[in-house]
Structures are given as C-alpha cells and as structure tokens.
Amino acid sequence: MGRKLFTVALFICATVLTAGLILIIFYATFLSDNTAAWLGWLMLSLSIAVGLAVGFLATKLEKLGACLLAAWGGFCAGVLLNETVIYLATSVALFWCINIGFAVVAGILGFIFFN
C-alpha cells in the first residue's frame, strides 16, 4: 500500500505546492489586496490548473518528483533552522545560503535513496 499511496501523496503535494508558489509569487510582485475579485479568482483557477498539470507530471516522473519533494523538505528544514538559531546573525545571504544548501542536499539524497 505504501508505494501506491506515495503516488497519491506526490500528486497532492506537487499540486498544492505549485499552486501556492504561483500565488505567492504573483501576490508578491504585481497583485495586491485591492485587486478586482474576478482577477483574484482567475489567478486562483489558473494556478490550480498549473498545479494539477505539475502534479500529474510528478506522478509520471516519480523519481524526479520525489527529488523535488525532498528538496522542498530540505528547504523547510533550513527555514526551521534559521528561525530557531541562525536568525541572530541577521544576514540575508546566510539565510538563503543555508536554505538553498539544505534543499540541494535533501534533493540529491532523495534522488539517490528513492527506492
């Protein structure tokens, strides 16, 4: 059952993460709180559609999808480490170096130890 549920979990995670990242990027760059309601719903619909496409692609390329999922977990672990200890350094460059480093290491380990 675990291998079958991995595919479902990979689809759900890839869909939610992709849609969330698209919305975060769009709202951080050119959308705002006073955006028209129809445009907000359109962006939500399009981000979900792209997320579903990425989720489907991740299920077809499971090893690559697992690598990307592991990289996201490594990035989150780096954020956790930064928020608990390394925030005292108050360095933006250190924040990004640690998070990207954790993501790369976790992605490589996820690719190597997939099975």
What's the quick description here?
With 115 residues, the chain is mainly alpha-helical. 83% of the residues lie in helices and 0% in strands.
List the helices and strands and how they pair.
Elements (H helix, E strand, L loop, with lengths): L1 H28 L7 H24 L1 H23 L7 H21 L3
Structure description:
- The structure is a single chain.
- The chain is mainly α and 115 residues long.
- The chain folds into two domains: 1-60, no CATH class; 62-115, no CATH class.
- It has helices spanning 2-29, 37-60, 62-84, 92-112.
- Helix 1 (2-29) packs antiparallel against helix 2 (37-60), helix 1 crosses helix 3 and helix 3 (62-84) packs antiparallel against helix 4.
Q: Please describe the biggest sheet, giving its number of strands, its sense, and whether it closes into a barrel.
A: none
General shape: flat
**What is the structural class?**
mainly alpha
Question: What is the CA-based Rg, rounded?
Answer: 17 Å
- Regions with pLDDT < 50 over 5+ consecutive residues? none
Strand content: under 5%
Terminal CA distance reads 15 Å
Count of individual beta strands = 0
User: What is the overall number of helices?
Assistant: 4
Mean of the pLDDT scores? 88
Proportion of residues in helical segments: over 70%
- The domain tally reads 2
Task: Give me the oligomer status.
Answer: single chain
- Series of H and E elements: HHHH
